Amino acid sequence: HYQFTQDERSLNLALRFSERSKSHLLYRDILKQNPDQVAQRDALRSLQSEWNKLSFVLGQQSKRSNKELFKQLTQVEKKLTKALAEVRVDPLAYRKTIDQPSHTLAQIKNQLHPNQQLIQYFLGEQQVYAIAISKEKTCFVKTDTDSLAQFVERFLAVLGISGFPSAIQNQEYLLLANTLFKQLMKPVKAVIA
Question: pTM of the predicted model, to two decimals?
Answer without folding.
Answer: 0.56
